[in-house]
Amino acid sequence: MRPVPPSEAAYDGMRLRQWSRGAARSAGIDRRDLLKLVAAASAAGPLAGLAAPAHAAPTAAAPGIMKPLPPELFTVRGTNAETNFAALRTTGLLTPADRFFVRNHTVTPRIDAADWRLTVWGSGLGGPAVEFTYDELRALPSVSRTAFVECAGNARSYYTTQQNQQVSGTAWTLGAIGTARWRGVRLVDVLRLAGIARDAVDVLPRGLDDEVISDGIDLGRVRRPLPVAKALDDVLLAYEMNGEPLPPDHGHPVRLIVPSWVGIANIKWVGDIEVCAEPLLSPWNTGLYRLFGPGYPPEGSAPLTRQTLKSAFELTAGASVPAHRRQVLTGRSGSGGAPVRTVEVSTDGGARWRRARLRDEPRSGSWVRWSADWLPKERGPAVLPARATDRTGRTQPDVAVRNTQGYLFDAVVRHEVQVV
Ligand SMILES: Nc1nc2c(c(=O)[nH]1)N[C@H]1C(S)=C(S)[C@@H](COP(=O)(O)O)O[C@H]1N2
Ligand SMILES: [Mo]
Fold it and tell me: Burial level of 163, CB count in 10 A (0-12/13-18/19+)?
């Protein structure tokens, strides 16, 4: 495995201190508005406009999403669509675009690749702003990479349903994740062509979708600073998903892919990238995407970076399973840290565990498919927990440590079924 580069940890500590002292610059938002957001984030209540309590019922349609959302594949939650994990059972390692979850702060914009431009600008460049057309980007050397995109709030609803805790945000179960083969240009190549200077510290990609209004505050367009160390490492400006041009809902014509990191880092419909010689703040690395709550400082934890460890069965919640017939239980486990080493499943609520068979070579920033046989004998309710252990020996805990916005749920999910 590749350990977390020390620069990531150093960056987090540094930003946190700068934020507390007010030394970092607010990009495109008033500092007082940012402070209001932070104050709202430390309370357990929902962030209005962006969020509904985790127990809110899903709605029927997401008007801002272009692709069809048949109910057997998706559960619509506000402006977002969650993949039904059972719909992944017939798919391979990669998630087809027709069943890849969608997380939209507003609505999917229609962008014609021919009119699109990427502008790279800011105090962290040696010279003036540089523009790239779609064709110019496509003419640069390309790389392909398999990576998941997973929302930081994936599995958030289990804070409420399993741990009886209130959190705010979209009430995802386990389906706010998908894995695809992305092709594009390395961000480092584009930044070098644009003349990134040695004193650049933050890189701020921004989407072309509408401005986000939350609680009467205009947060501006979706944008989240990336530390330069990550930006120069393994980040892609992707224009293809599973061998096809990016679909509109997933960022057409170009999006960021930031392997292993929280979904919000993967800015869709990117239109410009600010390269800055001073640290940057946006709502998405201050009030949002930090951990707030007991045990965290009032300004929150450091901004979230890597995703955590999770496991899910490819089975509907409450599914009926016939007694006395051999079942092949299947599922997937993903990790943004060290690759998954083992997955264990239990069919008796966690009393006895056995190893699942892994069906892929585990990698960081991706998931691994697994399966286990089961011969249910007793009729009635059964609880199936699944848990992964990564190569550092970290195992999913029984309880996740709560934070007000319900990010990074990593506990074992107890999947209930009925044996009939
Ligand atoms: N421009 C823009 N980029 C965005 C978002 C957005 O609303 N606008 N949502 C982010 C979030 S929170 C997530 S989890 C991922 C979801 O990517 P997907 O919709 O392709 O699954 O996109 C991220 N990038
Ligand atoms: Mo997200």
Answer: middle
Domain that holds residue 414: 310-419
Cα of 31 vs centre of ligand 1, distance in Å, is 24
- Strand duo 270-276 + 74-77: pairing: unpaired
Say which DSSP state 252 is in: T
Per-residue pLDDT of the chain (420 residues; tens, 9 = 90+): 334 444 555 665 666 666 666 667 888 788 778 777 787 777 755 433 334 556 566 666 788 999 999 999 999 999 999 999 999 999 999 999 999 999 999 999 999 999 999 999 999 999 999 999 999 999 999 999 999 999 999 999 999 999 999 999 999 999 999 999 999 999 999 999 999 999 999 999 999 999 999 888 899 999 999 999 999 999 999 999 999 999 999 999 999 999 999 999 999 999 999 999 999 989 999 889 999 999 899 889 999 999 999 999 999 999 999 999 999 999 999 999 999 999 999 999 999 999 999 999 999 999 999 999 999 999 999 999 999 999 999 999 999 999 999 999 999 999 999 999
Is residue 209 situated within a structural domain?
Answer: yes
128 CB neighbour count, 10 Å cutoff: 8
Co-location of 254 and 355 in the same domain: no
295: in domain: no
From the CA of 177, the nearest ligand is 1
Contacts of 173 (CB under 8 A, 6+ apart): 75, 82, 85, 155, 157, 158, 317
Residues 400, 325 within the same domain: yes
- Give domain status of residue 300, yes or no: no
| 88: phi then psi, degrees, rounded to nearest 5 | -90, -10
What's the Cα-to-Cα distance from 194 to each of 121, 128, 197, 202, rounded to whole Å? 8, 9, 9, 15
Provide the b/e sequence for 372-397 (b: ≥16 CB within 10 Å).
bebebeeeeebebbbbbbbeeebebe
Residues 314 and 234 in one domain: no
Q: Are residues 338 and 276 in the same domain?
A: no
Pocket, ligand 1, Cβ cutoff 6 A: 100-105, 149, 151, 207, 209, 222, 250, 263-264, 266-269
User: Ligand 2 centroid to 177 CA: how many Å?
Assistant: 9
Residue 197 within any structural domain of the chain: yes
How far apart are the CA of 244 and the centre of ligand 1, in A? 19
Would you say how long the chain is, in residues? 420
